[in-house]
């Protein structure tokens, strides 16, 4: 025997308990399920119309609950298999590092400005000598040493405070050694010149300071200067080797404000 049922009434009664709405396809699925689900006949002295109605309502409730679960799974995009799906929250976008422009790198060798004074002609006669200017019998402290290249010549500049030392520039003969240790020193280029600056030093013995902290071995790769390297700074005598690229004509002169000693090697 089948208990009389009103699908619309039963669904409305279930929805009134909390759920206020269902998707249309879930509603239709529940209606179809109710209409095609038979109720088991109850026998016994306790059967009455109230029991029949209770059984019918329980069956409808079970079908509705099942339909709701199916509907929720379908609405969520698929069955729940193997645990929850991917989180719906969007992951935070990767942080973007602020762009950093590379800082300009200093050139290996600072440029040396062309002189504006009267420059002597180049000479291939050696040695070349210059007399000290304004030293007042005190060693001159080296303030700066620079190398550079220009149209027609490469240049070496020694800068001092208050004068320039004696200069002697002549060809050097191997073996090349350091002063005063006498240890061997390799010098690139040919020919190699020896530069002796008498009355000059990098060290201020009175104050203990050393104003010039730059390089003492230059290999700039210029047209003529292959290597320019210090081989001694001892007893107020500053010694350098100059290896060039077949250059044989040079000139040396002084400039003022500030006091500079200049050596040029012709290209």
The strand line-up of the biggest sheet is 1-4-5-9-8-7
Tell me the distance between the termini: 122 Å
Which range does the strand content fall in?
A: 25-35%
Query: How would a textbook summarize the main sheet?
Result: 6 strands, antiparallel
Percent range for helical residues? Answer: 10-25%
Number of helices: 3
- What does the average pLDDT come to? 74
Shape: elongated
What Rg do the Cα atoms give? Answer: 50 Å
Look at the helices and sheets and give the structural class. Answer: alpha+beta
Low-confidence stretches: 39-52, 54-58, 63-96, 98-111
Order of helices and strands: HHHEEEEEEEEEEE
Count of beta strands: 11
Describe the fold and architecture.
The protein is α+β, with helices and mostly antiparallel strands. Helices cover 18% and strands 27% of the residues. It has three helices and eleven strands; from the N terminus they run αααβββββββββββ. The protein has helices at residues 7-15, 24-35, 49-75, and strands at 128-130, 140-150, 153-160, 166-171, 192-198, 200-201, 217-218, 225-234, 237-244, 250-255, 259-266. The chain has a six-stranded antiparallel β-sheet, with no helix packed on it. Strands 6-2-3-11-10 form a five-stranded mixed β-sheet, with no helix packed on it. The longest helix has 27 residues, at 49-75.
């Amino acid at each position: 025997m089948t208990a009389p049922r009103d699908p619309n009434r039963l669904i409305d009664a279930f929805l009134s308990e909390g759920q206020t709405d269902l998707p249309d396809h879930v509603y239709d699925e529940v209606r179809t399920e109710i209409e095609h689900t038979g109720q088991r006949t109850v026998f016994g002295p306790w059967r009455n119309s109230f029991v029949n109605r209770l059984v019918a309502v329980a069956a409808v409730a079970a079908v509705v609950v099942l339909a709701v679960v199916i509907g929720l799974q379908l609405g969520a995009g698929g069955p729940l298999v193997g645990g929850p799906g991917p989180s719906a929250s969007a992951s935070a976008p990767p942080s973007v590092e602020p762009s950093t422009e590379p800082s300009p790198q200093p050139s290996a060798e600072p440029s040396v400005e062309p002189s504006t004074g009267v420059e002597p002609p180049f000479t291939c006669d050696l040695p070349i000598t210059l007399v000290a200017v304004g030293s007042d019998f005190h060693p001159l402290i080296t303030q700066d040493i620079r190398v550079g290249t220009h149209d027609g010549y490469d240049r070496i500049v020694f800068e001092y405070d208050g004068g320039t030392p004696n200069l002697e520039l002549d060809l050097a003969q191997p073996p090349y050694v350091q002063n005063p240790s006498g240890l061997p020193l390799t010098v690139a280029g040919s020919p190699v010149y020896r530069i002796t600056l008498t009355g000059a030093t990098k060290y201020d013995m009175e104050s203990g300071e050393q104003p010039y902290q730059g390089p003492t071995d230059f290999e700039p790769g210029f047209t003529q200067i292959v290597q320019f390297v210090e081989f001694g700074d001892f007893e107020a005598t500053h010694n350098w080797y100059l290896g060039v690229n077949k250059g044989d004509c040079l000139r040396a002169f002084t400039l003022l404000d500030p006091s500079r000693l200049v050596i040029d090697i012709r290209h």
